[in-house]
Specification:
Shape: elongated
Bound molecules: S-adenosyl-L-homocysteine
Strand order of the largest sheet: 2-1-6-5-7
Radius of gyration: 23 Å
CATH superfamily of the largest domain: SPOUT methyltransferase, trefoil knot domain
Number of strands: 9
Structural class: alpha/beta
């Protein structure tokens, strides 16, 4: 899979590409990443990529022309390297988009990739967006100063889902939001020492009894999800992902006030 990123700050990506578990995804080429400096596609001595907004107001707007030239160069390069590839979508990071979620990340992680555009200033000339952008993706209901962090977030989440990137192949199966966990939140985790500041690890985890441990983890996921993201419980229920055992356990939480007492 190949992602091309249009950005005015390609240098922001370097530390992320060379550190942590994701490094393997980029070094092995499991996820190919090509950074495109937008300024290289701008004309004139000053290689201008922005201008003042028509109608007045603060800030600057990214010019359509360099963006289109850069996009054409990327399309050309992709077609040269992989002539049989269908054109990949153009993604713009923007507060307008749907917030990125696990389902979206999974889709991208099984795709041929995309062309990602990182906005800056007040954003892009709307005519370029209307002509070329297929999908807008947001990181959430807040405003970043540029799309680079959003692009890195998407690339990070996609890279860790590639086979062989995580040391333990199965480990993302049990991550929050994963369908294998029925879209619930992950349970809490514990490691050595067994007693830390007089607080002991839950005994079941030391029991070696795998069925009990699995049951306990499922219950912890239900407790945490009920407490922090009750909407995910509703979603799992509607999707038929909660067993009678799960429902009985959730009922017992409510009835015993366990959720309240745990949250205090
Ligand atoms: N004027 C715009 C904000 C521009 S911020 C508005 O009010 O909606 C500059 C750039 O940062 C945007 O073009 C976009 O690429 C990126 N950006 C800002 N907030 C974002 C978010 N929540 N998700 C994804 N990208 C974002």
């Amino acid at each position: 899979m190949r992602f091309d990123v249009i950005t005015l700050f390609p240098e922001l990506f370097a530390p992320f590409l060379s550190a942590g578990i994701n490094r393997r995804a980029f070094e092995t080429g499991a996820v190919e990443l090509k950074l495109w400096q937008l300024r290289d596609y701008a004309d004139g001595t000053y290689r201008r990529v922005d201008d003042r907004p028509f109608g007045g107001g603060p800030g600057m707007v990214m010019l359509a022309e360099p963006l289109e030239k850069c996009l054409q160069a990327i399309r050309h390069d992709r077609a040269l390297k992989n002539p049989s590839e269908k054109p990949v979508p153009v993604v713009l990071f923007s507060p307008i988009g749907q917030p990125l979620n696990h389902a979206g990340v999974e889709e991208w992680s099984q795709s041929d990739g995309a062309i990602l555009i990182c906005g800056r200033y007040e954003g892009l000339d709307q005519r370029f967006i209307d002509a070329h952008v297929d999908v807008q993706v947001s990181l959430g209901d807040f405003v970043l100063s540029g799309g680079e962090i959003a692009a890195i977030a998407l690339l990070d989440a996609v890279a860790r889902l590639q086979p062989g990137v995580l040391n333990d192949e199965g480990s993302h199966q049990m991550d929050s939001f994963n369908p294998a966990l029925d879209g619930l939140l992950d349970c809490g985790h514990f490691t050595r020492p067994e007693v830390w500041k007089d607080i002991t690890v839950p005994p079941v985890l030391m029991s070696g009894h795998h069925a009990e441990i699995t049951k306990w983890r499922r219950q912890q996921s239900l407790v945490l999800t009920q407490k922090y993201r009750p909407d995910l419980i509703v979603g799992a229920r509607l999707a038929g992902k909660l067993s009678t055992q799960d429902e009985n356990f959730l009922f017992s939480l409510g009835a015993s006030g366990l959720v309240e007492s745990k949250s205090n």
